[in-house]
Model the fold of this input.
Amino acid sequence: MKKLKAALLGAGNRGQIYCDYALRCPDELEVVAVVDINPFKMDEAGDKYGIEKEMRFTDLDAFIAQKVACDFVVNATMDEMHYETAMKLIEAGYNLILEKPITGKLEELLDIEKAAKRNGVKVLVCHVLRYTPFYRSIKELIDSGHIGKVMNMQLNEHVWYGHFVNSYVRGKWRSEKMCGSGLLLAKCCHDTDLICWLNNVSAPTKVSSFGSKSFFTEKNAPEGATQYCYECPQRNNCMFDAYKFQIEKDFIPFYTWADLNKPLDDITLEEKIEFLKHDVYGQCVYKTDMDIVDRQCVSVEFENGSIATLNMVGGASKAGRHIHVICEYGEVVGYIEENKYVVRVFDQDEIGCKEEVVDLNQVNSIDGEEDNSVAGHYGGDHFMMKDAVRYFNGVCNSVSVTKIEDSLNGHYVCYAAEISRKEKKVVDLNFNQ
Ligand SMILES: NC(=O)c1ccc[n+]([C@@H]2O[C@H](COP(=O)([O-])OP(=O)(O)OC[C@H]3O[C@@H](n4cnc5c(N)ncnc54)[C@H](O)[C@@H]3O)[C@@H](O)[C@H]2O)c1
Done:
C-alpha cells in the first residue's frame, strides 16, 4: 500500500485528532500542508506534524492557487464553513475527508454530492461511529442474514450534562443561527446515519419528530440570577456556576479555553477568571443565547415497512448510546459504552431464544496501541483514518466506508425531522426524486 499525503484544513480539535494518525502510522500517512485562518492553530499543527513553513497557509485560496499535491484534504472546519470550503476543494480536484454534519442545507448537500461526481473526487464523511468495533460488528451480523431483515430499531442517545452544558448551552453548537446546525444534526446525525446504514437494504421514506427546549430556560434560573456567574448572588447554590464548572471541574478544556489561543498548560488561573467575566462560558446556563432543543425524538419509516426511533436527551446524569435492533429471527441489544452487546436468536425447538454476549473488549485494543488517547469515539476516530488511507489507496472493502453517496440518507432524516418538529407534520422523504 502506498504511503499517502494529506493536507489539513481547519487545525482545531477534530482536525488534529484525525491527522495524529500520521504520527501513529508514519508508514501510511504524512501531513504535508496545513490551512487555518488562525495562525496559532496553523503553527500548532505545523510544528506537530513537521510541516515546512511554505506549506502553512492562513487562506484556502492561497493553498489551492499553489496547487499543493496531496492524496486528500481533511476538512475539519466548523459546520457553517463546510459547504464553501468543500466546494472550492472539490472543484480544484481534491479528495476529501469531510467533517459531519456535511451541511445544514439540503441544496448544499446535493451540490457537494453532484460536484464530487462531476469532478471524479472521493468524499468521505466523518461518521466515525460506523468504524467502531461495536457498530461495525452489529452491521456485519445484520448483513450476514443470521437474524433476518431489520424490522425495528430503537436508538437512544443520552448526552451527559457536563458535555451538554459545555457544547450546547455555553458552547459553540448552542445556536443554530450561528453554527448552521440544530442539536439533532450536530449531535445525532451519527445516529440517523447508523439507522440508515444498518438498514440500507431499504430507504427511509417518512419521518416525524417532536422536541423543544425545556430545562435551560430563563424561567428556571434561580431568583436574582445575573447574566454572568462571577457576580451572581446565587452562585454558591448553583451546580452550573461557571467557576465551579469551567475552572474547578474544567470539563472539556479544549473547548472552553480555545479562544485564548494558547497551549492549555500555559493559561493561568487569572486569565481564566478574567475570560469568564465576558465570554459565554462564564454565563448563566439559563440565560445564554442557546436557541436549540434539549430533547428530541424521531420516528422513521422505511420503504420496506421497517421502522426506527431515536431518542435524544441533552443533560442526562450519565452518557449512554443504546441500541436495540429487532430482526425477523433475533435481536441485538447493547450500550456502546460497554463495548459489548447481546444477540438473541429465536430457538424454534424450545419456543424461546438462545442468548449470546459478544464482548468486543477482548478484541478492541485499538490496533494494539496501549495509549487510550487513540480510543476517541470508542476507536471510531482511529479506525476511520485507517479505512480512509485504504479507501484513498483503492484497497478498502470495509462495510463502514462513509462515502458521501452512502451518507445522504442520515442527513435527509435530520432535515425532515426538523421540518416535522417545527411544522408539526409527518414529512415525506422525496428529496432526491
Ligand atoms: N465526527 C465527530 O464525531 C465530531 C465530533 C465533534 C465535532 N465534529 C465536527 O468537527 C468540526 C470541527 O470541530 P472542532 O471542534 O474541531 O472545531 P475547532 O473550532 O476546534 O476547529 C476548527 C478550525 O477551523 C479553523 N477555520 C475556521 N474557518 C476556516 C477557514 N475558512 N479556513 C481555514 N480554517 C478555518 C478555525 O480557526 C479552527 O482552528 C465541526 O464541524 C464539528 O461539528 C465532529
Remarks:
- The chain has a mean pLDDT of 94.
- The CA atoms of residues 185 and 414 lie 6 Å apart.
- The chain has three domains: 4-125, 129-216+290-428, 218-282.
- Residues 9-15, 35-38, 41, 60, 76-79, 81, 85, 99-100, 126, 128, 186, 258, 377 surround nicotinamide-adenine-dinucleotide (CB under 6 Å).
